[in-house]
Amino acid sequence: MTRFLRPSVVLPVIVSAALLIVLLAVADLKKVVALLLTFQHLYLLPILLVLVAYEAVQCIQWHVLLRALGIRVPLRAQAFAYLVGQPTRVLPIGNFVENYLLQRAEGTDFGLSSAATLLSILIEVGVALLGLVILGLGPWGWLRPLIIIGLAVFVPTAWAVHLLHYRGRLPAWVTRHRRMRAALDEVRQFRVGAAALVHPRVLARGGLLGALYLILGGSALYLVLRGLGIDSVSWWEVLAVYFFSLAVALIVPLPVDIGVDEVGGVAALLVIGVDAPAAVGAMLLLRVLSIGTALVIALATIVVVRDEFRALLRERARPVAGG
To answer: Is 299 helix (H, G, I), strand (E, B) or coil?
Structure first.
């Protein structure tokens, strides 16, 4: 029980709750609830199908990146790790649960497979920013030059820092500790994985798949808005809103996803002319449907791929050497 009371767990929950409370207060909770009750259930099935397709394409991208890393484990193990880990992405560092599951079930090196996860996140950031440059966001004409100038400064700076760090040597005392040596080994494996993934063909395939599932995510938001009776915005505008909310959630240095994503999405929806109750209602409904779909898929995966789940439980029950 005490592990759930740690600051690393409690603080993100408080931040997420505070952001959602602020949004509901600004939009008027009664109006948001009243609008949600008018949702047209005819749109529910198309939204769920789009969300399932979203996860399917993400899983395919995961498979492509693992193959590029030379990780050869059964497809069912890859699908199990990804689909069961998917609902945890809303948690702090939850993106890497899939790597942990793959390590526990198949013995795959965590540092190596985490290179695929990090590249997937970077692809999402890149696609979202590129989409905003192409589509723009309503009257926010300053957004395009801000993104272009920001990338022109950030990319060379990050590359220079990487080169300096790569060439530097660690103090001798760092390698004396067992845990530090294990961590450094994972970092070395991550570097090996990152080098294998920085290949034009791999980046092209991963980027195309990333663009596809983000377009599906934006389409789900568009269908949610239509289900709420909002037909004054185009699919292209909603796609730009989705890109903006995703970019905010991934770039803003907060250890949470829930709340930050909604704030960015609501701000962007307000910019393109959607009123506050509809903006908040749409983002919250998309969040609930997304998490619900991910949980159902994860549970179905556990039932279908029972052998992988049993292997994971056996590994968890096995005592750790030296512990």
So the answer is: helix
